[in-house]
Amino acid sequence: MALTATKFFLDEDRQLTAEDEEEFFRSLKVRNTNSKQTRLGRLDALNDAAIALIQIKKWGAFNALDIGISSGVTTIEFNERLKAAGLFPSMTATDLSFTAFLVDAAPECRVLVDASGDILQFDLLGQAIRPWRRRLDFLNGMLFVKAGLHKLYADKAKRMRADCGDTARQIRLLNPRLAAARDITILEDDILKPNASFHGKFQFVRAANILNREYFDRETITGALLNLGSYLCGPGAMLLVGRTNDSRGHDASFYELDERGARFNEINRIGRGSELDDLIRSLTIQARQQ
Ligand SMILES: C[S@@+](CC[C@H](N)C(=O)[O-])C[C@H]1O[C@@H](n2cnc3c(N)ncnc32)[C@H](O)[C@@H]1O
Predict the structure, then answer these.
(1) What is the tens place of the pLDDT at every residue in 100-130?
(2) Residue ranges of the chain assigned to CATH 3.40.50.150
(3) Distance 69 CA to ligand 1 centre (A)
(4) Which ligand 1 atom lies nearest to the CA of residue 66?
(5) Which of 5, 51, 256, 259 has its Cα between 20 and 30 A from that of 17?
(6) What average pLDDT is seen over the chain?
C-alpha cells in the first residue's frame, strides 16, 4: 500500500526507499497524464544514448533542460549518469506544476489536492486511499468507500484549498532526492508558453513522455516544439523527443540543430523513433537571444 502524503512529505523520521517513492508517486493520478509516476530506471536506455552523443560533442560544462519531469526520479538518474560518465551538466528540470495542498477536511480525513483542484489522495485515519477507481475496487467493496469519501470530503477539501486557510498546507510534489539536490534547478514552467529566460540557453533539451498526440493536438505540439527549439543555444545543440511504452520500450529520436541553427536533423533513433519526426523535421527554428 502507498504511503500517505503526510508520512511521505512531513514525517521527518521517515526512511524512504526508492521503491516507497515509486509506489507513492504511482498512486497519484494527475490530469492530462496517467499518473504522477515515472518508474525507476525508466529512461536508462535513452540516458545511455544521450551520453554517447554528448561524449562525441566533447562539450565541457553544458546546460541541460529536462521538461515534464513529473516526480523527477528520471531527472535525478539522468543527472547522476551524466556525472558518472565524466560529464559536467548544469541541469534545469521543469513541470507544469509541483504544487499541491494537504487539506484537513475533517479530523479523520486529510486530502491531497493538486493545483488544478483535483483530488490526488484521501488519508482516512492514516490509511492512503486512491481517489480513482481500480478494477479491484469492484470486487473488494472499495468502490463504495471511495464514493463515500468523495461525497463527504472532496468538495469540502477543494473549497478549503481555494480559501488557502490554515487547514491547507502547501507542499511540493517532488521526489525528496530531487528536492534536496543542490545541483539541479527546479522550476514550474508550461512548455506551451514561451519562456524568455530559457532562450538560447541549453545545449541539450529532453522531452520524454510529454509531447504526444494523445495529450495534445498538432498545432499545440508545434508551438511547444518551437519553444523548445528556441531554448537551444544554436548549431549542434540537441533535442531528444521520445515516448516510452513500459512493456515495448522506447520510440525516441535525437535531433541536432543544423549549421544555421534553424532545422532539426535526426542523428540517432531508438525503436521506431519519435512519432513526431515528420513534424520536427519540418520546423524552422527562430534563434532567440536571452
Ligand atoms: C508522463 S510524465 C513524464 C515524466 C518523465 N519525463 C518520464 O519520461 O518518465 C508527463 C509530465 O508532463 C507534465 N506536463 C503536462 N503538460 C505540461 C505542460 N504544458 N508543461 C509542462 N509540463 C507538462 C505532466 O505534469 C507530467 O508530469
Answers:
(1) 999 999 999 999 999 888 999 999 999 999 9
(2) 44-97+173-282
(3) 6
(4) 6
(5) 51
(6) 91
User: Closest ligand 1 atom, CA of 33?
Assistant: 1
Q: Where are the alpha helices (DSSP H) in the chain?
A: 5, 18-26, 44-57, 73-84, 135-140, 142-149, 155-163, 176-180, 218-231, 277-282
Q: Give pLDDT, residue 35.
A: 45
Q: Which residue ranges have their beta carbon within 6 Å of ligand 1?
A: 30, 32-33, 38, 42-43, 67-70, 74, 95-96, 190-192, 208-210
pLDDT of residue 229: 97
Residue of 26, 39, 79, 95 to test ligand 1 pocket, by largest number of atoms within 8 Å of CB: 95
8 pLDDT higher than 70 = yes
Q: pLDDT-based confidence at 19, cuts 50/70/90?
A: confident
CA of residue 43 to ligand 1 center, whole Å: 14
User: What is the CA(72)–ligand 1 centre distance, in A?
Assistant: 10
Q: Separation of 206 CA from ligand 1 center, angstroms?
A: 11
User: Which ligand 1 atom sits closest to the C-alpha of 190?
Assistant: 20
Fold of 44-97+173-282: Rossmann fold (3.40.50)
Q: Are 199 and 289 in contact (CB under 8 A)?
A: yes
Report how far ligand 1's centroid is from the alpha carbon of 174 (Å): 13
Q: 142 to each of 130, 135, 148, 289, how far by Cα in Å? A: 10, 10, 10, 55
How many residues are present in the chain? Answer: 290
Alpha-carbon distance of 187 to 251, in angstroms, equals 27
pTM confidence score: 0.90
